[in-house]
Write a structure and sequence with these properties.
Number of domains: 3
Shape: elongated
Number of helices: 8
Order of helices and strands: HHHEEEEEEEEEEEEEEEEEHHHHH
Distance between the termini: 141 Å
Number of strands: 17
Oligomer: single chain
Structural class: alpha+beta
Helix content: 25-40%
Length: 327
Amino acid sequence: MPRDFDTALQQADATLQARGMPRDAKLRLDARLFAPPPQRLAMTLVAAVSVAVGFVVVAWLAPRPPPMVGGFTVTAAELGHVQVSAEAAVTLAEGSAMLDEARGLKVSSLDASTLRKETRGVRILNGRATFEVQKVTAGRQPVRVLVSGGAIEVRGTRFTVTERGAGGEVLLHEGQIVFLGADGLEHRVQPGETFAWPLPGPPPPPPELDELEPLPPLRPRQTTKSQEIDWREFDRRVHAEAVITELTQLRRSGAWTDAVKLLERELSRGAPDTRERLSFELGLIYAWQLKDSAAACAHWAQHRQEYPGGRFAAEVERAAATLGCAP
């Protein structure tokens, strides 16, 4: 026997490759190497079935996500009490509740309430519902409940909103909220306080004259010889008509500062035939366009002194009372 076994094996392997393996021996070898025995195949099938059954069981036992309606999360029991319109407004039946998980907001309907998720917050369109908001962490934007009169800004609290479509109220149970009016004003609501909207505004100003009335026709001057026209009066009338036309154009374009300059200039010149009218117009601009209550009250005092019982006396008294001017 050769001492170098590795060399001997290599020589035997080369001899087998040169002679070739008998066909029957090769088939038997391949059958043993590549064809699994029957018991191995059965075990493979059993394992595959077991894995499939396991996946089914896990999927069946896994918790299912709660249903979503109009962007709100509801329980399966609440699905029959919630309806969604084509405008994505969700109507919640009385006694039902739903969640806005992204904002940490829970809505419990006290009456049939209609709500809608918007970019700026949750809007209640009508109805009465209680809102519970989780405490907002530092750095996050406060939650907003949108209503017809503005918005309710919340950082963690509980309150009830009644919305009628053109007005409503909010009752704060606990925490703190800020009502942001459509006019930009803020009102901080305290626990136990009820805040209603729309807010009462000041009485409406006296109606402005849409157009300045034209001057009456020029009457001829009676003389002993014949009816002659006083051309000096005619010139004054032509100037007055030009002033009225210019004032009308300034009012239409909203050039209130230029209108004040025109009126003050003409009143300083006397402005016959139109002085009372121009004085009344100047008071209106001070009061309602320039919002200068001090200048308006001073002007109304002068106007009442110069024209007691004049043609605009009732309008002047109403405007002075609205501004709180001294009688």
